[in-house]
């Protein structure tokens, strides 16, 4: 990949500061301040380290903070994200299936630190589930990529159509369809179909929403809510109705299941308001009563250099 172009996408520093609009922090525990300051320093050091490594390589590269990136990524041969899974997810929303991405976890969690402060606060750092590199192995992983010794895996993404119109953002982890107020009831129905033929009965729901995840996203919110881990390269989707209200609904077997790669889920929204959240809360699309939503894995995949344990 010598002579090619690389985009270095960076997590900003201000995510480590928690301040009110008047600038006065509500955090009084000095250990939390020290923890946040250390996280910021570790992240800055990781950025500096990655930039120094890139300066030594025969490759053109440009750094940009993720908050300053708003248009689709093009005219590069590789994207390197420095942050965590959130930075990689944000990059994925602006990428097609032609450019591979390498995630660098700039601030990994330390088990001993979490245990030490468990009675004071949550000292977890970045999970970096999809990040194949840290500062410890970044140069080696990058060299292997530049030499063509490792190839990216293609992860499935979720395509969503509202009233037959394709949304411009594909989900790498999951989508959540819910009322904008978390305390309000979400009313909707859905069925699984293949082409135009139904593969399941119509399911009518009153709940707190509907979550659909990719295989890569099955270890995130889906797992936390009682789902199961899927093989990371699976093209199937996993769905779960959140907190169904109807008597006996949870035991019906219809509230949780798979949408196979050749199938899609067709849902109809019956609440006055609704929102489709894609990979968290930052990317969302409003829906309203009567809207139809089609969900499938028929989206362009994303080329990702995965951690080695996925491939072993």
How would you portray this structure in words?
This protein is α+β, with helices and mostly antiparallel strands and 312 residues long. It has 6 helices and 19 strands. It has helices at residues 30-55, 85-92, 111-116, 138-146, 221-224, 308-311; strands at residues 5-10, 60-65, 78-83, 101-105, 153-155, 159-162, 165-166, 174-178, 186-194, 197-198, 203-207, 210-213, 237-241, 256-259, 264-269, 273-278, 283-288, 292-296, 302-305. The two termini are 25 Å apart.
Features:
single chain, 312 residues, alpha+beta, 7-stranded antiparallel beta sheet, 6-stranded mixed beta sheet, 18% helix, 30% strand
Shape: globular
> What composes the largest sheet?
7 strands, antiparallel
* SSE string: EHEEHEHHEEEEEEEEHEEEEEEEH
Q: List low-pLDDT spans.
A: 19-24
Could you say which structural class the secondary elements and strand pairing correspond to? alpha+beta
Helix content: 10-25%
Tally of helical runs? 6
Kindly estimate the percentage of residues that lie in beta strands according to DSSP: 25-35%
How large is the radius of gyration? Answer: 21 Å
Overall number of strands: 19
Mean pLDDT: 92
Spatial separation of the terminal alpha carbons: 25 Å
How is the topology of this model organized?
Layout: E1 5-10, H1 30-55, E2 60-65, E3 78-83, H2 85-92, E4 101-105, H3 111-116, H4 138-146, E5 153-155, E6 159-162, E7 165-166, E8 174-178, E9 186-194, E10 197-198, E11 203-207, E12 210-213, H5 221-224, E13 237-241, E14 256-259, E15 264-269, E16 273-278, E17 283-288, E18 292-296, E19 302-305, H6 308-311
Parallel strand pairs: 1-2, 1-3, 3-4, 4-19
Antiparallel strand pairs: 5-19, 6-7, 6-18, 8-12, 8-16, 9-10, 9-11, 9-15, 12-13, 13-14, 15-18, 16-17
């Amino acid at each position: 990949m010598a002579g090619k172009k690389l985009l270095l996408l960076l997590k900003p520093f201000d995510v480590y500061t928690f301040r009110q609009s008047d600038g006065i922090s509500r955090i009084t525990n000095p250990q939390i301040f020290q923890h946040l300051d250390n996280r910021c320093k570790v992240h800055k050091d990781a950025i500096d380290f990655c930039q120094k490594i890139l300066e030594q390589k025969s490759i053109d590269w440009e750094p940009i903070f993720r908050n300053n990136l708003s248009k689709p990524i093009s005219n590069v041969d590789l994207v390197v994200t420095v942050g965590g899974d959130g930075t990689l997810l944000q990059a994925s929303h602006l990428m097609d299936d032609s450019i591979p991405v390498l995630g660098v976890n700039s601030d990994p969690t330390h088990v001993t630190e979490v245990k030490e402060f468990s009675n004071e606060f949550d000292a977890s750092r970045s999970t970096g589930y999809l990040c194949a590199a840290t500062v410890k192995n970044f140069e080696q992983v990058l060299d292997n990529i530049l030499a063509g010794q490792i190839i990216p895996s293609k992860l499935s993404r979720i395509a969503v159509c509202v009233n037959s119109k394709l949304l411009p953002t594909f989900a790498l982890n999951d989508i959540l369809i819910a009322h904008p107020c978390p305390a309000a009831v979400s009313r909707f129905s859905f069925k699984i179909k293949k082409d135009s033929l139904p593969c399941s009965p119509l399911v009518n729901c009153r709940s707190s929403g509907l979550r659909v995840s990719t295989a890569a996203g099955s270890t995130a919110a889906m797992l936390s809510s009682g789902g199961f881990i899927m093989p990371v390269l699976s093209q199937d989707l996993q769905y779960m109705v959140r907190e169904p209200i109807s008597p006996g609904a949870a035991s019906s077997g219809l509230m949780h299941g798979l949408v196979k790669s050749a199938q899609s889920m067709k849902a109809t929204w019956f609440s006055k308001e609704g929102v489709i959240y894609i990979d968290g809360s930052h990317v969302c699309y409003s829906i309203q009563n009567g809207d139809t939503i089609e969900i499938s894995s028929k989206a362009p995949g994303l080329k990702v250099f995965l951690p080695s344990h996925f491939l072993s």
